Every structure is written in C-alpha cells, then in structure tokens.
C-alpha cells in the first residue's frame, strides 16, 4: 500500500525547491538552473496529483471489494450479465 500523505508532502517539498531554483536561476541568469527548477516543479506537481489519483481509485476499489464480500451472489449475477452482453455483442452468429 502506498503512503499517499508522505507522497503528497514530498511533492510539495519538491515543487517548493523547484520554485526556489527557478527564481534563483532567473535572478542570476543561469538558464540551466532555471530549467532544472521548472522540471522539479513539474515532478513535484506530478507526485502530488498521482497521490490524489491513487487515493480516489483506492477508495473505489475498496468499495467494490466490500460490495463483493457483502453480496457475492449479486456480484456474480452482475458479472455474468456483463459477460453475456459482451459475448452477444462480439460473437454474433453470422449467417
């Protein structure tokens, strides 16, 4: 399991470092430092967004798992119906 809280914190720290490098690079005229700062900002933002996405999907998966455990026959019926519909759609008799 992924610790999303620490991942979000790392993302914020990396983004803040990137902003600092970007600003120092702009003031000093160091284009490489400025570019590195922008890359760090994007990386930090990506970590934070991934953590948010993981949280949302993890809660959905937990809800599905709970539904299957609470109502296994209903879940089996739903899966069977979906399989039947997909089978009818893709494997129609040609004739």
Per-chain topology:
Layout: H1 4-28, H2 31-70, H3 72-90
Helix pairs in contact: 1-2, 2-3
What does this structure look like?
- The protein has 95 residues and is mostly helical.
- It contains three helices and no strands.
Euclidean distance between termini CA atoms: 51 Å
The main pleated sheet reads as: none
- What is the overall number of helices? 3
Portion of residues in beta strands equals under 5%
Strand-pairing-aware structural class: mainly alpha
Q: Which stretches of 5+ consecutive residues score pLDDT under 50?
A: none
Overall radius of gyration: 24 Å
Rough outline: elongated
Helix content: over 70%
Instruction: Please trace the helix and strand order, writing H or E for each element.
Output: HHH
What is the count of β-strands? Answer: 0
Let me know the average pLDDT.
Answer: 85
Brief summary:
With 95 residues, the protein is mainly α. It is 88% helix and 0% strand.
Features:
mainly alpha; 3 helices; 0% strand; CsbD; YjbJ_sf; transmembrane; CsbD family protein; transmembrane helix
């Amino acid at each position: 399991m992924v610790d999303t809280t620490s991942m979000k914190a790392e993302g914020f720290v990396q983004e803040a470092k990137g902003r600092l490098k970007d600003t120092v690079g702009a003031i000093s005229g160091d284009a490489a430092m400025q570019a590195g700062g922008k890359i760090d900002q994007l990386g930090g933002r990506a970590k934070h967004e991934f953590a948010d996405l993981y949280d949302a999907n993890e809660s959905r998966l937990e809800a599905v798992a709970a539904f299957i455990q609470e109502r296994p026959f209903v879940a089996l019926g739903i899966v069977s119906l979906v399989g039947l519909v997909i089978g009818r759609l893709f494997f129609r008799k040609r004739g």
